[in-house]
Amino acid sequence: METADAAMALGRVQERKGRGEEAEKAFKEALTVVKKVYGEKHWEFAAVQHRIGIAFELQPKKTDMALSHLKEALAVFQKCHGSRHPAVACVHTDMARVQQKRGRPDLALKGYEKALDIHTELQSQPKFDQDEVLEAKIAALHNVAFQCAEMGPAHYKSAAKFLHEAVQEQEERRHTLRSSGLEGWEMGGEEDKRLTEDIARSLFICARMTDKATDHHDCCELEDVSVLYGEAYDYLCGVFGSSSNEALEALTFLAITNLREKDFEQAAETLEEVLKARLMARFEGCEHFEEELAFLYGWLAEAQMGMEDYTSALATLKKSLEMHIKLHPDGMHRAVANCRYRTAVCKKRNGKTQGAIASVTEAVRVWDALGEQKCRAAKNARRMKKVLQRQS
């Protein structure tokens, strides 16, 4: 068995390096020895077949071979351990990933769900290390959630539900480990920090997915989204700092949610805070500084318009328009048209009819050039232009 162990160790190294063919060769050498010693109905045989399946997965156009070996490993594991065992759950997870690569998201989701069911059931079986079981369950919840998310809008609510459960389990795990007295798991210890960072990121992803799944006309649902973004922001501040890209991104989405809730004062206050921090840091690490700045100014202007502070909104829209023109020198972009249209609305509210006509005319010209005459904003702009021309 020493030969098999050495071959398995070599195969694992090649597997981690992404060298599928080399890993396959090493694992097959191990399989030859294991088969002679234990036969084909032993869990050791299944364990090597499992690795061979992964080795094939790493190779181009070998997913059918990968699935074949994984199915064989699964059958043997189930005979040796029963259908509810960590090894069985692990194979279901790997088979799901292979199905995803084969373009079968439906089968991938079923596989991830089977793994989740097993890990959930193992929580009631003390013979297994319960922290390992919980950690595996959290990973399974994320797998199911991300697979749901990839399957499109119809599955967003399910994705959000599983992500929320994952966050709850992560927080429960952290609480248990903090109380364990284990080194590194005390509050502020290295392991505790790592898990807290994982929770912060999971909570933000949960907030984003809940946002995507939300009916933005439902005040109660929007309130739930707002709470999640707030919780994510607090976590991210604690992990990365209040001026970090991670925290400010969550704060930006919180402000956008405030806009949808028509809480314009809160949205304006939050956006001003984000802008101040972004400008001070010059978006350190951000590849699209000007673009994000342009949109931040645009959202702030929307909040100011909601507060009926049209003078401030005009000044903010001017900054937003300047940034968009810098990004699109010919001015032929939807964001430019929207900015000019909002400028026209503010000028109209301030009694500057001719200025409003000039701005809305430019907005219509851009939408026409883009072939977007039928979009709602373009139609509104045309109607506004006609009304203003009659009034003048």
Automatic annotation (TrEMBL):
Stated name of the protein: MalT-like TPR region domain-containing protein
InterPro entries: TPR-like_helical_dom_sf (IPR011990), TPR_rpt (IPR019734)
UniProt xrefs under PANTHER family: NEPHROCYSTIN-3 (PTHR45641:SF19), TETRATRICOPEPTIDE REPEAT PROTEIN (AFU_ORTHOLOGUE AFUA_6G03870) (PTHR45641)
Species the sequence originates in: Hemiselmis andersenii
Keywords, in A-Z order: Repeat, TPR repeat
Pfam families: TPR_10 (PF13374), TPR_12 (PF13424)
